[in-house]
Amino acid sequence: MADQQATHAALTNAVGTFYGKKILQAFEPETAFYAAAPIKEPIPIAGGKTINFDRYKKVAALFKDDTDEFTAQQMYLSAETVTATLHERDGYIQLSRYTVLTARGRALERAAERIKFAAAQTLDKLVRNDIGVAVADKATYSAGMFDNLSIDGGTLNHSGITVRLWTRRADGFPLYHNKTRLAQSALVTSFASSGMTVKTLQHGVRVLEGNDVPKLSDGNYRFIGHPDVAYQLTTNAGFKGWVSPTSSDAMKMSPIRRDIVAGASIQTTTLGFKFPLTGDTLSTASGNVYCSLLFGDEAFGVTEVSGNGGGATGFQFFLKQSGPTTVSDPTNKKKQAAFSITAVAKVLNKSAGLWIVTTDI
């Protein structure tokens, strides 16, 4: 901590800027749902807690000839506003002055790295839950069942034969299982156990293509799922031939890592929905239900966290001491690594994405 000013509570501006840029530089690649969002909207400064996304309607093809050589047919580009309310999440790691002085391995820098990872996962969970699904032993829809979900089902009850798989009622992406569209509140016991296959993924791509959903900038749709789902995909019989049998290059790393299968760019994350179900939830035994997101352009939007747009800052990183001026820390014993995130996600076109539901039993 030689770079720290001895008489000030905070780090010097130079040191603070260094750490801030270091964290931001590696922040977005740590995310999946956020980084893959087709639309990113900056948070307007002093714009209130509600942010607006624009949902553009499809421009239809012409089916009539021009009436003469000089008159073109007018086509309309129209949009509607979709509003969403911002979330705020803040967290910190606190270390004592003694710990920083005596710990091996630069404790404060280690804390900063851990905070970066926690902040990235916090943002990804926020985005995932805003556009996602929930498993709950509830017969009626509640917006609250999508709030504060942790990985693996959150705090909701997911045991017993009454458990249901819910999507957001107004704007949620549809659910598909075994090439069949499920109801928004489908009983888990109503569908058979089935793992992810290439054929299942191909069907999902066919649904998006049938809806004339534009592909993303890389020319493919995007698929985000749990690593368990990627394992199912790459070990089923239909995957044979997608990996070259004559080259060892494909097997030097996970064959599903940022690869393309059936017209979809595959991305895995442990934040992919995985709901462990206990009891008689799949008619025969306990197991897991996975929900993997397949989507195209303009499927959903998120707010920028990089601080662009009118000076608003959606993500901030702090590395500092609390200072001797506070009553609770008169001798400047506390040091902190902390983050602050302000963000929201919103489904913009529910026809441009879908959840593929699979199981592991």
What would you say this structure looks like, in words?
- With 361 residues, the protein is α+β, with helices and mostly antiparallel strands.
- The protein has a domain at 128-300 and 350-359.
- It is 18% helix and 28% strand.
- The chain contains five helices and 19 strands.
- It has helices at residues 13-25, 97-102, 107-131, 198-210, 227-235; strands at 39-41, 50-56, 79-85, 87-96, 133-136, 164-167, 175-177, 180-182, 185-187, 221-225, 260-261, 264-268, 273-277, 287-295, 300-303, 315-321, 334-343, 345-347, 353-359.
- Strands 7, 8, 10, 11, 12, 13, 14 and 19 form an eight-stranded mixed β-sheet that branches.
- Strand 7 and strand 8 (180-182) form a beta hairpin.
- It is globular and about 80 Å long.
Write a compact overview of the structure shown.
By secondary structure, the chain is an alpha+beta fold. The chain has helices at 13-25, 97-102, 107-131, 198-210, 227-235; strands at 39-41, 50-56, 79-85, 87-96, 133-136, 164-167, 175-177, 180-182, 185-187, 221-225, 260-261, 264-268, 273-277, 287-295, 300-303, 315-321, 334-343, 345-347, 353-359.
